Amino acid sequence: MNKRLYDFILNKEHHKHRHSVDWDLADEYSKKGLSPIERMADRFERMCNEEKAVILENEQIVFLRTVSNLPDCFTEKEWAEIKSKHYIHELGYLSNLSPNYYDTISVGLLKKRETADEFGKRAIDNIIMLSDKYLEEAKKQGRADLVEVLTHVPRYPARNFREALQFFRILHYALWLEGNYHNTVGRFDKYIYPYLKADMDNGIYTEETALELLEDFFLSFNKDSDIYIGVQQGDNGQSMMLGGLDENGNEVFNLLSELCLKASYNNKLIDPKINLRVNKNTPKERYTLASHLTKAGLGFPQYSNDDIVIPALEKLGYEHNDAVNYTVAACWEFIIPNVGADVANIAAMSFPKAVDNAFHKSLKQAKSFDEFFLCVKNEIRNASNDICDNIKDLWFVPSPFMNVLMDCDIYNGGKYNNFGIHGTGIATAADSLVAIKKYVFEEKSISAEDYIKAVDEDFANSPELLHKLRFETTKVGNNDDYADAFVVELLDTFADSLEGKTNCRGGKFRAGTGSAMYYLWHANEIGASPDGRRKGEPFGTNFSVSLFADIKSPLTVIASMSKPHFERAINGGPLTLEFHQSLFTDEESVEKVGMVVKAFIDRGGHQLQLNTVNRETMLDAQKHPENHKQLVVRIWGWSAYFVELDKEYQDHVIARQAYSV
User: Fold this and answer.
1) Mean pLDDT on 30-39
2) How many domains does the chain divide into?
3) Where a domain ends, among 519, 554, 573?
4) How far is CA 51 from CA 12, 151, 166, 282, 462, in A?
5) 315 shares a domain with 351
6) Closest CA to 235 of 440, 485, 517
7) From CA 421, how far away is CA 490, in angstroms rounded?
8) What is the model's pTM?
9) Nearest Cα residue to 403 out of 79, 97, 154
10) How sure is the predictor about 44, in pLDDT bands with cuts at 50, 70 and 90?
11) Coil, strand or helix: which one is 619?
12) CB atoms < 10 A from the CB of 506, how many?
C-alpha cells in the first residue's frame, strides 16, 4: 500500500486543490434557448476546461476532481415546466446504469469517436483535452511512467493492466463530471482480468505488485466520493461486481477477483462497494475470504445468488446472455450492463401502509381473517396500481458521453426498459397480520374496536397489550411457518399486482424486496402498527426482521427469509444481518460466518448483506465523532462512515439486532 497517499486522502489533504465555480449556467442557457443536449455538451466542455491537472505524490492512477460543484443546466422555472409534462425520476439525470467500459478500453476513444454523434464527439474531444493536461503535468513532474500511460490512453486501446485501470478511472471520472450519478463499476473482474493475466504471464507483475497497484486504483474511488450525489454521504453508487457465471456457464471468479477482495480489506475504505456473485457450487473458501471483509466492518461484500437471479431474469424476458451477465445498480437492484436502461428504483410500495389502511377501514366489518386479509391484498393492488398509473412520460436529461459508452441509444432507452418497485417493511406487515389473526380472530381476546383505538393512541393506554405484541407474539425470523407464511403471501401478492403491466417505455414492472431510505420515510407515513411498533419507530431495512423481534439465531432468520418465491420478485433487496464485532475472535469464527452465508444461498435465498456492529462503539462515536472517523457501517445498500450520517440513520443501525453464531 502507498501509505503516504493513503493518509493524504484519508486526512482529506487533497481537498486543498478544490475550488467552486459561480456560474449561472441555467439562466444563460435559458436565455440562449439551448436544447437540453446542447446544454449538457457545453457544461461538460466548461467543466473539463476548468478542471486542473493534479498529480499527487507517487500515485499511479491519476485524475482528481478540482471543481467541487456542478451547476444545474435548467432554471427552477424550466424544471417546473418539464415536470408538468413528464415524470422525472430523482434528479432527472441518468443514474444506476452499467455502461460498456470494456469496449471503450479495448478500442480507445478515437475509435469510439468514429461512430459517435456530434455531441458524443464533443465529449470525447474534451476528455482527451483534459487527459492532455495530466500528460503535461506528468512531464513537468518528471513522471516518465505516467507520461507513457497518458500518451496512449485514453486515445488508444489499453495495452496492459495499468493502462486499463487508468482508462477506467478516466471514463468513470468523466461520467460524474458530465452530471450522471450512481455510476456503477459492473463486472470488473470479467472485463479487466485479461489485462492482468497477460501482464502476469509476461512477468510484469507478481501478485504482490499487482495488489499494490490495485490498492492505488481503489483509492481513486475515494478521492471525490464526498462530492458525489446521494441521500447520505457514502450513497454514491460505486458498486463493483465480482465472480458469477459467464455466458457458457463457466465461473468468472479469478485472480483479479481475489486481489480485489484483498485490496478492499487492506484499504478498509467504503469504496468501491464490493458485490459477490455466488451459487450452490461456490467453494466455502471463497465465503471465508469474503467474510474477512465482514470482519473488517466494511459492510460488504453483498452476495447475489446466480441460481435464483439468472432464471428469474430470464423469466422476466431477459435473454440468457444478458441475464447471465447481470450486475447491480447503486445498491442491490439487478441491472444488465451495456444494453439495459432499467430504472430499478423508480418507486416503493409500503406493506405496512397496506395493512394500516385495511386495519382502519375493514377490520371492524371483517367476518373472518381471510376476509380481512383479502382487504390487505386489495390495498397492495391499489397501491401498486397507483404507482404504475402515476409514472407516465418518463424523461431524462440527455447524456452524450453515457450514450458513447452504451451499446444502445440511451437517449431513447435501451434493450431493457423495466421499472423496479421496492417493497418495504414486509416484516412489520407480516408481524401485524400474525397479531391480528391470533388475537382478533382466533383467541378473540381483543375486539377490533379496542385494537384500533390502542394503535391510534400509540398504545399509551394499553401497556399490557403493547408488551404482548412486542415481546410475546410470534415474529418473522424464527422459522415459524405461522408468521413466515405471511411474508410469502405478501410478496406473492405484490408480484401479482404488477404482473402483466406495461410501463411508459414498453417495459415491465419488477417487484422487489428492497427498501432504500423508505424504511424511515414510509414508517413516518403511518402511526403505530398492530405488531407493537410505536409511532415514529422505523421498519427493518430491506428484507429484514422487525427491529424489536426476539430472534433465536441468524440461522432461523435465514430459514424464514429464504421461503418466499424470489423468482417472482427479482428487482433485488437483500436480507440484512448484523453480527456483533466480538464474534470475530479467530479464523474459525470467520469461517462460521461464511457458512451462514452459504446456508442462505443453498436454501435458495437471493441476496444477502452482512454488517459488523458494536453498539457501545457507535454510541461513543455519536458523542465523540472525532475519535471514530473511519468507523464503517452498512446502511441500506451501501456502506458509509458512521460519523458522517444523519442521526436518524445512525440510530437505526444502533437499533438493529446483533447476532452471534
Assistant:
1) 98
2) 2
3) 573
4) 18, 19, 18, 45, 62
5) no
6) 517
7) 14
8) 0.94
9) 97
10) very high
11) helix
12) 9
